[in-house]
């Protein structure tokens, strides 16, 4: 059983968690700092992560299962059932969402659904082929952070290709651990002064970092909704939220469950 989002939020508040967040935030910022658009959706385990603050997009939507109250505006929802209109978001960031969700395929499918054609989805995940993955294998108790799924980057790229998401960039970071000198390495990475091991691993493009940031772009065309001339235009940035899409996603989610049940018989 996966730990609750509250357990993850508590771990992210520790020194090790803060070091990891700082390193991930710096890597994500470097990947998205040239992206343009308006709506940005961050699906996070904890609303204190603030993983996408370095983007240039105008309107940020932070979605989490259990808001902590630290932010004034948070969208409470399940990551596999997003109450957001299809083809309406320019950038989606999934911060370890696939690592902990019991339905990672549906989470990625929802991210693709709400994304505009040409938009980007950024996935932050733990890398099983790393010192972190090794520590997870030898850990006696599967607690945070070793309780995550640790989905490999190559498998994630395969999942993305099935949803017309073309992988554009894969960055591996933190080639040590967060134990002992590893915390110092994470802080140095966050401050833009990576150590010798980190620099060497990047030059050799070794896929062995403790976490990765995968950037994919949606390549399919999106439908253009027809607008009636006499209806007033909605100018509010909150127009991207759409409960109809939420009900549609819930219906699709139920349909997939029914199909799985039929196949099991």
What report would you give on this structure?
- Strands 3-2-1-4-5-7-6 form a 7-stranded mixed β-sheet, sandwiched between helices.
- The radius of gyration is 19 Å and the shape is globular.
- It is 38% helix and 18% strand.
- By secondary structure, it is α/β, with parallel strands linked by helices.
List the helices and strands and how they pair.
Blueprint: H1 5-12, H2 15-32, E1 39-43, E2 59-64, E3 75-76, E4 89-95, H3 97-100, H4 104-114, E5 115-126, H5 131-138, H6 153-162, E6 165-173, H7 181-190, H8 196-204, E7 211-218, H9 243-264
Parallel strand pairs: 1-2, 1-4, 2-3, 4-5
Antiparallel strand pairs: 5-7, 6-7
Helix pairs in contact: 2-7
Walk across the major sheet and give the strand order. Answer: 3-2-1-4-5-7-6
The percentage helix is: 25-40%
Q: Which structural category do the helix and sheet elements fall into?
A: alpha/beta
Got a strand count? Answer: 7
Largest sheet: 7 strands, mixed
SSE pattern: HHEEEEHHEHHEHHEH
Strand content: 15-25%
Distance between the termini: 26 Å
Count the DSSP helices.
9
Mean pLDDT: 82
Q: Which shape, going by the Cα principal axes? A: globular
Gyration radius, in Å: 19 Å
Low-confidence stretches: 256-261
Features:
265 residues, alpha/beta, seven-stranded mixed β-sheet, 9 helices, 38% helix
Question: What's the quick description here?
Answer:
The protein has 265 residues and is an alpha/beta fold.
């Amino acid at each position: 059983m996966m730990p609750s989002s509250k357990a993850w939020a508590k771990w992210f508040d520790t020194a090790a968690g803060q070091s990891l967040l700082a390193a991930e935030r710096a890597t994500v910022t470097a990947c998205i700092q040239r992206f343009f658009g308006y709506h940005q959706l961050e699906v996070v385990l904890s609303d204190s992560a603030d993983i996408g603050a370095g983007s240039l997009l105008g309107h940020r939507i932070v979605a989490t299962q259990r808001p902590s109250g630290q932010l004034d505006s948070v969208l409470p929802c399940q990551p596999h059932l997003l109450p957001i209109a299809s083809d309406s978001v320019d950038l989606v960031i999934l911060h370890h969402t696939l690592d902990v969700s019991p339905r990672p395929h549906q989470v990625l499918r929802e991210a693709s659904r709400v994304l505009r054609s040409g938009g980007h989805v950024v996935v932050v995940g733990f890398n099983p082929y790393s010192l972190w993955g090794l520590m997870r294998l030898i850990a006696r108790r599967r607690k945070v952070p070793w309780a995550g799924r640790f989905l490999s980057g190559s498998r994630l790229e395969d999942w993305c290709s099935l949803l017309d998401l073309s992988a554009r960039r894969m960055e591996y970071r933190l080639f040590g651990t967060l134990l002992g000198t590893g915390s110092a390495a994470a802080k140095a990475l966050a401050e833009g002064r990576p150590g010798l091991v980190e620099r060497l691993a990047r030059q050799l493009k070794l896929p062995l970092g403790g976490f990765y940031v995968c950037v994919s772009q949606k390549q399919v065309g999106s439908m253009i909704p027809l607008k009636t001339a006499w209806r007033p235009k909605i100018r509010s940035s909150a127009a991207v939220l759409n409960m109809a899409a939420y009900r549609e996603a819930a219906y699709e989610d139920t349909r997939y469950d029914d199909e799985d049940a039929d196949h099991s018989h």
